[in-house]
């Protein structure tokens, strides 16, 4: 009788152990951190490049997710990388975002968060600049001149073209617009190869450029507030990894708030300078400041109204065949939940 009881007990114990392993197997698989590959273009200026420089900010990194920031030369190159699954989150200009939907047919692309906004009241706006001794004083003075932009259809390029059109000027008919990369614009202006440049941070904050150039008008003057860069991902990736992405966005919001707090300015500038191997004075006067840098929403929420208006400008200038209903390509539920968590833990 005891043998029978012992055998039954052992069989029950074995079944329980096996059942426990079966139950734990899926949990173990779920516990593997999700790799999040996010793109960036401009070191330091694009937050993904320096997102977790401050130790302790990323509470979930290595737990529910692991971050892999990837450098790209420009935002249009991110579109094919999204299409082929080489990156998970792209930091796209509003112009590249719209073209990804229209030309690359990424109908499942979703805006999930803000990177930064240009032209918000009191904050920095990209500058269209001329030499200090230039005779150009008004937009009408640009007629017959050579202007530079960093590429047709880019966000700053469209601000330039929108202002020209408002004053009755068009490329090829009244002015000549040539393509010059942002790092080279100071040189072509100084050498009188162009009469006008379009400049953005960090290049516009170069003390040498400030010494020789002045602002003719800003991007804000041309097209108002711009949802300059958004974070965008494909719907399938969002659905599969929603919990890990909320954790990631929670850490991101915490970092954004820390970096933009004036009380932390000296510390963050020092960390950014060390990371980018640049002198502190390269960043000290403008990085994450209100007057010298772009607006970054503290909850990482993009301005969808501005984004819609920006896309419509893109269409009006002929860079989109049709306009796009931006609201149909957004998923702000993740960043809303993440912000609520951060606010609750203050």
CATH class category label of the largest domain: Alpha Beta
Distance between the termini: 63 Å
- The second-level CATH architecture of the largest domain is 3-Layer(aba) Sandwich
Helix/strand-derived category reads alpha/beta
Q: Into how many domains do the coordinates divide?
A: 2
Question: Sheet bearing the most strands, described?
Answer: 3 strands, antiparallel
Form type = globular
Mean pLDDT: 91
Find the CATH superfamily of the largest domain.
Periplasmic binding protein-like II
Helical percentage: 25-40%
* Gyration radius over CA: 25 Å
Number of strands: 10
**What is the number of helical segments per DSSP (H or I, 4+ residues)?**
12
What is CATH's topology name of the largest domain?
D-Maltodextrin-Binding Protein, domain 2
- Listing every helix as H and every strand as E from the N terminus to the C terminus, the arrangement reads HEEHEHEEEHEHEHEHEHHHHH
Low-pLDDT sequence parts: 1-18, 20-25
Strand order of the largest sheet: 3-10-4
Residue fraction in strands: 15-25%
